[in-house]
Structure formats: C-alpha cells, structure tokens
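Hey everyone, long-time lurker, first post.

I ran two proteins through the pipeline my lab uses and got sequence/structure pairs for each. Pasting them in order. The first:
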Amino acid sequence: MPTPIAQNGIPVAPGYPNYSNTFLIPPIQSDRMLERFYTESIFARITSRDALNEITGPGVTVYFLREPRLTLRPFVKDGLMVYDTFEADTESFTLGTAKYFGIKIADHDKMAMKNWPRYLSIMTESTARSFKLQLDCEILAQIIADTDCHNRGSQAGVVTHSYDLGTPGDPLLVTTENVGDFLADLEAVLDEQSLPTAGRFVVLPPKVKNVLLKSDFKQACFLTCNSGTSPMVEGEPPMRLFGFDLIFSNCVPSVMDATTNTRAYYVIAGLPMATAFAAWADMTSEMRDKDNPFETYISTVMSYGFAVLYPQALACAYIHFTPSP
C-alpha cells in the first residue's frame, strides 16, 4: 500500500521550533468555496408549468377548465332534438405551501469578510438547489398517491387488467433479462388509457441504469450505433426507450419491503400534462432589529403549489432488484 500524503505539515526534528500555523507562517484561507454534490432536480421535466405566467402572488388559487364534451345522439329527420348545456368542469390548486431560509450576520463580521457578497450568493444558490430536490421528493410522493388505480398493481391496464406492475409485499423483480419487458408493460398500461405518445417520461432509480448497461440493450446499441457516437461509449444507455424519456433520479421514493426484505422503489411514468406546478417568485427581505442595530437579517420565502390533474395519465410500478450476495 502506498504511503499516504502527510496532512499535518513537515516533520520537525527534536529541538527545532515548529513555525507552522503560527503568526510567522500563518494558515491561508483559500478563496475557493468547496462544492457540495447534488443529484439533478427533475420536477421541471415531469410537471406542466403552463399556469406560471398567470400567477399574481402567493396564496392564490389556480383554476383549470377541463375541456367540455357534448353527447353524440342519433339523428332522426324531423325528430325532436336534445341540446346539452355548458357545464364548467374545473380542477384547481392553491399556492398554499411555502419554505424559507434565513441567516443573520454582525455588521463588523460582514465588513471584515472581503468576499461576503460572494459567500451569500453561494449559500443562496446551494439552498435553492436543496429546495428543488425537496420538491422532487414531495411531487413524486403525491403522484404515487394519486395515480389512477387501473395504472398500478398486479392487474394494471384499464382494458385488459393483464400487466403486473408489482404490489407491496410482492414487488416486481427487474433483471437484465426482463428490464425491456418491464418498460414495455408500463407503455402498454398508458396506451390502454388512449394517451398521447409524445412526451412520455419514466422516472427510474439509478440501479435501472446499471441493469440496462448489463442487458442485451448494450450489445444492440454497440451493433447499431457508430462507435464514435454511440452513447454506450460514454457509459450511458439510450435516454429514450419504448417511447419513454428515461429520467434517473436518487429521489425515486423507496421503502424496505417487509415481505421480501429488499428495498423496493416506486417508479413513476406518464405525461407532464398529468400534473401542474406553479411557484411564486422568491421574496427576499433584508432588515435590522431595533434591539440589534448592528446585525443584518436576510431571509427568502418561496411559495408554490402542485396538483395531479389527470390521474389516468400516470402509471406507478413497485419494483425491486436481486439482492447483492
């Protein structure tokens, strides 16, 4: 094993002073802020934000008018005709959820820090990324709860009831041999709802990427793609398969399945039009307290709302993988 690099300075022989980390050789604070690593946020890719330009402020309720349908009736010459009346069928949600973050700093410290504006900007951006990841988790959990009952379970499919998408206690095992069949079944469940094919997505745990890379899709892609442009050369499977945009996220909800004693994942598939998300622009405040006039208080509040508008345009599978030996 190679000798690790010394982290505590150059060794000093007995009798020789150690000047490291003293006023003679003081430590240096780098201007670079060490980055934290975040998974990529996905909520903007799986929800509709059509109402965004209509929002006038936090706390408002957004109404959507569902397209009306008129009844088709047999026509009889000189017969009595029946007329429908216009019925307003609406769906709505309210920007009734808010999150905030805040920080206070003494003015003397703020003036002494030569890069305080940059530090504040970095902290704000980092917190905004964390906010987006929390949104991913909240939105995926809501989608799971509101998915149409015909698009989940061991008898999924509104017409045939013939697709097993897994149930708690009996999750669907996804392997290198059946990962294609799994995606095809998800597609078929959505097809039975007579949904548009354009724009469909599926949100998968990263483990599925590993399964795809070990499946027959790897060989098929190498054989059919030019070796210089094949996504497999870069270590990525094709990002669109079986009519789905593949989205891999660590925010996919998971639980320990009590029956199989394995981690099971809730996989979501569907169309962005099935859901709606709206947020009000961040409201930032910078103020002082009369009792602490030499301290600055900075806070930001973010208001948002979310709703499932078309449950039938979403499908949910409950899957797991073979445990590692």
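...and the second, right after it:
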Amino acid sequence: MFNLIGFKKQNEIILNNYISNNLHSSVLIYGPKGIGKRTFINKFINDLLIKIFDENSYLHHLNLFKNNTHPNIKILEKVTDQKTKKLKSHITIDQIRQTKKFLNESSSVKKIKKILIIDSADDLNINAANSFLKILEEPKKNTLIFLISHQISSLIPTIRSRCLKIKFNKHEFVDFKEILSNKALNLNDEEIKFYYDLTFGSPGDAITLFNSNIIDCFDTTIQSMCLKSFSKENTDLASILSKFNNDEFKLYISLLKSILVFLNKLKNNDINKNVYLSNKFELLKNYSNSVTKKNIIDRFNYLSKNENDLFTYNLDKKMFILKFLNI
C-alpha cells in the first residue's frame, strides 16, 4: 500500500524491535527534508497493521490511519488557522494539550500501542516544545512516539537527548531516479541528474521544485549573484521571490545553499564527478571566477544566521534577498 524506496533495512529493524518489544518509546528520525522520513513511518505503520490484523481488519485500520481518525494512532502537524484560512507557522501548545489527552485515554484497540507521529518536531514553538518535553520525561506505558526533524539542531537539546536518534542520509541516485520516475514527472535523465544535484538527493524537494516556478529562477539567480552591486536585474528577481509563500521561499533558500556549496567546492578544487552529476552544475564553473571564496562563505553564513528570523518574525522577503545579493 505504501511504496518505500530506500531505507528498507531501517524499516525491518524498527518493525522487528517493535514486535519484540525492544523499541525505544521515542524515536527521532532526522535528515534532509523531502527524503521520505514520513513515507518511512507510514510504511512502518502499514507493515505493523499487516502483521497484527487479518486482511479485513487490516484494511479497516489502514483507512482509519490514512484519515487520521485511528483511535490508537495520531498525527500531529501544523493546522489551518480558522480565521485566516492559512496554515499556522507552528504546532501550538493547545495541540500538545490535545495530544496529552489522546495519550492518557484508555485504548480501545488492545493489539497495538498508542502511536504518535509528529511531523515535524521542528514546527514546535517554544511553549509547545517545553510542554511536549514533559510527555517524553514521563512516557506512558504502551506508547510509541515518532518525531520527524529536517534540522535536528532546531530542537531543544532536552528533546533530542530523550529519543532514540536515527539519521537518514540522502538517497543514492538510482533510488532517487526510481522515485521521480514513479511520479511520472516526464523528466529525461539529464533533468533528473540536475534535480538530484540541486536538492542533495531529496525527491520531495525535487517534486516541489518541479511543480513550482522556483526552478525558473535558477539561471537568473546565478547571474544576480555575480553582479557587483544593486541592479535592476537584482531588484526584479527580489520582487519575484517576494511573492513566494514561506514553504516556497524555504525551498529557494535551500537552492541558494546548494549553489553556494558547489561554488565553494569549486574554489577548493574539491569537485567529485560522482557527487555532482548534471551538466547544468558543470556550467556553474563559468560563474565561479566572478565571486570570491570569502563572498561565498559570507553569503552562506548570512542565510544560516538570518533564515529562522525571516520566518519567525515575518520579515520582508524582498529586502532579505537584496541584502543577500549585495554581500
């Protein structure tokens, strides 16, 4: 029902440990966004239901899980604000209170533990994170908590320390290609290689890029990064980017970081053809002479230092990009 490409060994280990009652009560799965961490957990749930229930019961429980109405399995994620009709920027403390109620309620299904999936723990605001910590400190019997994190450093240390941590690395190209091919995106091999390089092997990010106009800004971004001062081209690019929603803009920042990492490797003569596969990235060599190593590092540091504040305080995206380009 859930097709998992890659990470099959990890899935087998977690499933066997659960069946033998040797699995830690809180499991933190972390790694780059879009590589399939949630798909991995979905596959685990699917395989677990197959093992526990007969065919008819399995399909019933699977349907409940898919609709997030299963009495023993809860998915905690950002919800839509009823007033603004927009997705909230964080998982709130009210949601944690509801989660505590779910974990404290008696289970109506005795064959399976209470399972909580947090997608993602990065979205917990500080009050929600502190409240959730109490759940980890006093785990309920017969409960299992999965936390997904795209950036483990964003979690408070006390949450990280109370979980079994499993790191997921980027996909090998062959798995990445299979995932994109299964999505029928109508990409040729060279285009798939480009997306692989650009997203550090993240199929989820590649699919999002394909379905958006972010990728259309790639060439313009490279050209703007090589200009020495403010220009109409930079202003026009910043104006286009300012219209991106937060998720699109976060993905664009990841694109910038990919470019900067590649340029820095060029400066260090540290390019491995087995890592960067596409001809498009090879063309970046033509631009590398227009920027200094210090400029590359300063721009990367600027993104890393300021991106969280950009979204936390809803800062001006246009000014954010213009400052980046003027470094």
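Reply from user beta_strand_b:
Welcome! Quick read of the second one: The mean pLDDT is 90. The beta strands are 26-30, 73-76, 114-119, 143-149, 164-167.
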